[in-house]
Amino acid sequence: MGPRFPLLVAALASCLPPALGCVICDTKVVEALKSLEMDYLPGHLETEHHKNLMKRVNQAVQDFKDLPLDEDSYMGVVDEPTLEKASWSLLKDLKRITDSDVKGELFVKELFWMLHQQKETFARYVALFQKDAFCPNKCGMMLQTLIWCSNCQKQVHACRKSMDCGERNVKVHEMEDMILDCELNWHQASQGLTDYSFYRVWRNKSETLLYKGKEPTLIKTMVEPKDAGTYRCQLGTVKSSPATIIRFHVKGCFAIGLRRILDTPLIP
Ligand SMILES: *[C@@H]1O[C@H](CO)[C@@H](O)[C@H](O)[C@H]1NC(C)=O
């Protein structure tokens, strides 16, 4: 992994006040805790314990974010689907408890045992996100909306990797289609993308724009020998750097011999 990860950890650790936790960034969770206090506690716990219990519950939910900062499991940020999954899991468990109508000390015990387990569930989801969905681009730049667990702020994060997304060798046969595919699997998940541009790159290094638009593939039907050569695609972003650049080296496999036979008139 590149040196950007420790920088992100440092940035997250230094400049943000420790306050909120990730599932608490979801308004559904905030509402559920309010409803627990207003609707469930009366009738299920003596009034004098309400305030202290809610203080401990809020603290426990905020503590979800206090996981060891680690490049492989938790960086203090999540994406929206991960947050959604984690808070759904918590809400489901909370509903199970309130549906059971449990009271008094048993209720308190179950509640905190559940919160303890949900923190582990949160840690598991975040580790999965960190492994598979945090900056999944191997090259180029991906823009990803992340939620900072320490203050619930949403920000677009630029995942910058090596700008070189490689070269592709493409073989084409005469009269067939030439297909140049510029799409990488993370493009669908990236935000702030603009257009794909395809250029023909000439020997003298000058370029001619062939296509600019939303299509990630350039298709030329009925290729001719003159189509062999170098091409370049570039996917733009709303920022100054492009998301992806790929070069294509197109080699023609032209059956000169066969063509000569076919071109020869059958009847002289
Ligand atoms: C470069 O080569 C292409 C194709 O051979 C030609 O059309 C273009 O004018 C050339 N550009 C320069 C700057 O020489």
From TrEMBL:
Coiled-coil residues are none
Note the Pfam families from the entry: IZUMO (PF15005), Izumo-Ig (PF16706)
Q: Where is the Izumo protein immunoglobulin domain?
A: 168-252
Tell me one GO molecular function of this protein. signaling receptor binding
Q: Name one GO cellular component term.
A: acrosomal membrane
Span of the secretion signal? 1-21
UniProt-listed GO biological process terms: fusion of sperm to egg plasma membrane involved in single fertilization; sperm-egg recognition
Entry-linked SUPFAM superfamilies: Immunoglobulin
Q: What domain of life does the native source organism fall in?
A: Eukaryota
Task: List UniProt keywords, sorted A-Z.
Answer: Signal
Statement: the UniProt record of this protein carries the keyword Transmembrane helix: no
InterPro entries referenced in this protein's UniProt entry, alphabetically: Ig-like_dom_sf, Ig-like_fold, IZUMO, Izumo-Ig, IZUMO1
Give the protein family.
Belongs to the Izumo family.
Protein's name in the database: Izumo sperm-egg fusion 1
Q: What is the native source organism of this protein?
A: Molossus molossus (Pallas' mastiff bat)
User: Could you read off the lineage of the organism from its UniProt record?
Assistant: Eukaryota, Metazoa, Chordata, Craniata, Vertebrata
